[in-house]
């Protein structure tokens, strides 16, 4: 028996509010109002060829490669339309190159026009093998051309900066680079020049492409017009092996792609992660990777020879035995302090934390290889350690915030991807940005921000006075979603964290602490601090200690019950003979608040073990130097400033280098202790067994000090690190160094007159430690304030002056330039 099928029912598709219904290639589609046709087609799986279009850039319609056939109200438009500039409309009928001969012919014609002048550089072009023009010429182009005139030529390449090269004849004038610079980075130094057939990309004479984000223009260029000076002619894309990774340079934790060949990294590219860095990374993250292949890298353990007093290469067995014996003796004498630095992965920092408590039986451990304070530690212990993307500030939260107050934080220099989010939100008119600082920096201008100027060191007083002098700021911070972003420089300002906490409590704004270094947030979480155990547990809490001891399988009472010394106290104790040894992991003494104290501590410590990549001021004093793996040669994870875990695998395997956690695990075995951190995976698993502790609350109550006049011939110093400077991870990269901002001092016009300074002349800044002389510029700083970069070029503020943000320094005019000590 045959049964007739049920009569099909055609239910009317309900169009949600704010959406429209259209047809693309015969398929009915529901799309949100305002969506571009090219995006709607992408959601259907239809890829329309394009060059100028980019999802994070405003539409330009420059290349015309994305032409499609469009009908409205049953009437076809007279000619194909650019799908990257046309938004969807109700009842629209769209035919792409898949179903429309008209659209296909139009796209082929545009490709023919683009190839009139484009050179046949494919065999030598860096873009060959990953070039959209190359791919689309094959997929959407004609097999021959009707144009046979001579192609236009230019001298090639031209340096638009020390790290970006331009081959103008390859350019298809898509304007991606100019739009990125003007819209995303806010650095409109690269522009379209000339008109008509002579139109080209270029920069103004004597004005190089000065941007911290210029490398992104190389990556988004759809042809080989923009290339990297460091990568040019080094490899072809099909010669490279690619691996996903995470940037090791700052606390944002940007997604990256690392390309390597024959065991050597050739380049890094931005990864696509909408929750964090979208599709952008800064130039430091892109280009600063050659530190791992410098000629002076330490690859074998070093032991100080008893007779000559010099370091000599040794076997791992000998080095570990000497280190274990020396540390055991120092532990049993006056104890050992541990300085981990802020660049470690979560797994490595956890190994240091566990090594200090079990092998050395001490809480004298601190990751803060920079200016720090007890107030900062109280703030971090009570609030920051327990924040994560679910309950704290995030990148996407910043983008939606009605207001953002930045305290002691220079985003473009200290966290570039945070800066891009702030600029993006401010540019859309979503976020009002307030900068509590000293002068109108490029970041203030590019985020359309409002400067709340104050004297260095008086930021806490300025925060407390906001309700009286800037009630509009407090009102905006009271709106849902408002954020307060605090930089690590706040540790140099007494009362700053207390003032921030009280302001947040009064307004309801969320607070985020954004350090400069990649490993600081993770080190805090795993207890690489004198007062915390892993998971934010306080060492003074007996129940918390017992919980950790049981999980670790050690006897009760192994972990000391009282908080340990912080970085400065550890150094003072070592210098005074109150500590007999030090374990130092990748710390640069010249980053510390008092480098002279660090040198004295290194000279006075009885026994020093250094885990290091390259020779440093620490290895010069170390009794044993144990080489460790750089980020690309190990796996692990970083905890970014949001509290988001950013895992990565080993890019280069089989190099023989060891992660810190493996070195410490083996060293602990020599000292009759088990860490169970033989690998990053084992370390992560051991940490996971502990889980998170319970918040212990915060008792911040540091008063903001009264500011006294600097005195005759003196000024208050403002200083912070620049993104590109003298950092140890920027070595062996001259192209990146060439884009560093000019090293100058900045003063107000009135201050310049007071000290007899002229803009373009020189100024000498001095303390009882030494003096720095450098060019001076006038800017809108408060009177009696002078700004210097902390560690750029010949200017090393902490090493030369022994000073920091808020210090009183002597100022005088000088006609010479240099550093005196």
UniProtKB/TrEMBL annotation:
One of the record's GO molecular function terms: NADH dehydrogenase (quinone) (non-electrogenic) activity
Recorded protein name is: NADH-quinone oxidoreductase
- The EC designation for this entry is 7.1.1.-
Which PANTHER family does this one have? NADH-QUINONE OXIDOREDUCTASE SUBUNIT G (PTHR43105:SF12), RESPIRATORY NITRATE REDUCTASE (PTHR43105)
Originating species: Lentzea miocenica
Reactions performed catalytically = a quinone + NADH + 5 H(+)(in) = a quinol + NAD(+) + 4 H(+)(out)
Question: Which UniProt keywords are given for this protein, alphabetically ordered?
Answer: 2Fe-2S, 4Fe-4S, Iron, Iron-sulfur, Metal-binding, NAD, Oxidoreductase, Quinone, Translocase
Described by its record, this protein's role is as follows:
NDH-1 shuttles electrons from NADH, via FMN and iron-sulfur (Fe-S) centers, to quinones in the respiratory chain. Couples the redox reaction to proton translocation (for every two electrons transferred, four hydrogen ions are translocated across the cytoplasmic membrane), and thus conserves the redox energy in a proton gradient.
Q: How is the cofactor bound?
A: Binds 1 [2Fe-2S] cluster per subunit.
